[in-house]
Every structure is written in C-alpha cells, then in structure tokens.
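Dear support,

I submitted the protein below through the web form. The confirmation email said the job was done, but the results page showed an empty box. After a refresh the structure appeared. I'm attaching both so you can tell me whether what I see now is the final result or a partial one.
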Amino acid sequence: MKPLRIHDSNYVYFVTNRTHQQRFFVLPTKENNKAIRYWLAKSKNKHGKHIEIYAFIFLSNHFHILLRDPAGELPRFMNYFQGNLARAINRNIKRKGKFWQREYHDLVVDTVSSDEVFWDRYAYTALNAVKSGLVSTATQWGGVSSVPHMLCNTPITGKGLNKTKYGDKKRHNKNVKPKEFEETFEFTLSTPPFLENQEESARLKFIQSLFKSAAVAYRKARLNKPVLGMKKVLKQSFQDRPRSPKQSPRTRFKSFCADAKMDFKKMYKTFVGIYKHAVHLMFVYFNDTDRNQHVSIDTTFPWPPGSYPPTKHKPAFM
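What the results page shows now:
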C-alpha cells in the first residue's frame, strides 16, 4: 500500500517525481524547456492560484518543486501539470507510453523546530544540477529552474499553443493559423517564509550567500570532480539513464530534530489509523446499501482532517 498523503495548509512540501525507468526524457532542449514553462505557468494559473512556489528545477529525469498549498489545490495542480507535460514531451521526443515513474511524492518539510530544513531543501532544489555534477554553478544549468527568477526577481513566463481551441477551429476553417491560438501565462515566486519581513536587497544577499556556501559543500562532497557540462548533457539521448539509478525510500517527513520526527511519526500513525477506520466504515456501508445510491463521501464517513478521501481532489474538510 502506498503511503497516505497528509495535507495541512501550513505545511511546506518538497514535491518530486522521476521519469519512467529514470530515462532522460526531460533533457533540457529548447522544445522541452518551452513545454515545461508553458505547462507549469498554465497549471499554476488554472489549478494552483493559491499555491506558493518558492523554488523549482527540472533535470533530465526528475524535478523538484518546493511549495506551500494553503487551499488544498496540489493534487489537481499536479494531475493537470504532469499529464499535460508528459503528453507534450512525448510528442517532442516522438515516443508513446508511460512517462512518469510513479505518482509524485510530497515530502513534508519541518519548518517548526527551525528554519534549517527549509533552507536545506531550498538550496538543494536551486542547486540540484550542481549537486548532480552537471554544471559548476546554478546559473550554468540550461534547463528550467527558478534560479534566474530568484536572483533577478522576474516572473516565470510560459507561452504555447492551445491545441484544443486550435483543433476545434481548424475543423471548420482549414486556413486558420496556429499563431492565433498561442497563449501566455506567468506567475511569480513566493517570498520564502523566513524572509517575509526582509527588504528585497536583504533577501537577495541572503540567497546569494546560501547558494555560494551550498555550491562549495556540494562540490566538496563530489571531491571536486570535473562536471559533465551542458554540451555533453545535450548530447545524451532521451533513452539514456544514470548508471546507478536512485532507489531511495519515500519518507513522509524531513527534519533534523529527533523530537520533531518522533512527534510527526506518532501523529501520522494516528492519522493512518483513523483513515483505515473510515475506509472500513465505507465498505460496511456500501455492502448494506443499494449500490446505485449516491452518497456524499466527505460527510458520510469520518475521514481525518487533511486526508484525501477516495475520488476526491481536495483534502477532507476543505
């Protein structure tokens, strides 16, 4: 059984997913980068208006997004984003079939015991290409990343063709031009929670210092081995994969504090127990009820707050 998702409007999540078999489907080509920007910005505008995105990066076979979801929009946002991006990139690389390795993982980041874990994930996301030995500095990465927007305070803009509207119109008018159905979406990064009271110049100075120290630590951890470089990255095939693909377990909570980990573990165990009880009651109910009767799952069964009842995209009680 896959781990249950738990939602709290105050949680910060480190969201990750990898491609099928960890193949390099998301190589940072011009076409792929355009598709990522377009679908990320469009998804944010359509299904994630309240989601606070702090950092993101897309490497050749995975992505990371650091965010907060105050309105319970994350499942619908991710479903729309991942599905459309998979179809777009599959078209770019002329393939069909499964694109993502599995469902996205939303790791809860401890922001209560200290700010350490948040900044660890923030730097990890922004400098993931450096940590992976692909480039020497975060700004050298040729893929889609939040770094330029963090350092220059500029919006993320995505432009692409609305294929649905274009296709509908083309059925009635063969001379219609695709350019008439291009659309643009944009969004801005949210200010990190621990810098909200700082002026923009102070925030920038802190972030630059954080990136500098993190880059040194990542290069040191790799024994200062030469980086692959963007030219060699782009020479790879989308069918390539790492020599030693990562198979790390999916934990639910990231913290450097032993007490915080223990508290979360206890809370999560209780949460799972209540959810299982609600599932049991649901099965009992449907075994004793006309199968054709329509019921409101949210109000009929005692789902724990922050859980996702079956078939629902919103957390219980939101």
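Response: this is the final, complete result; the empty box was a page-load delay. The chain has a mean pLDDT of 93.
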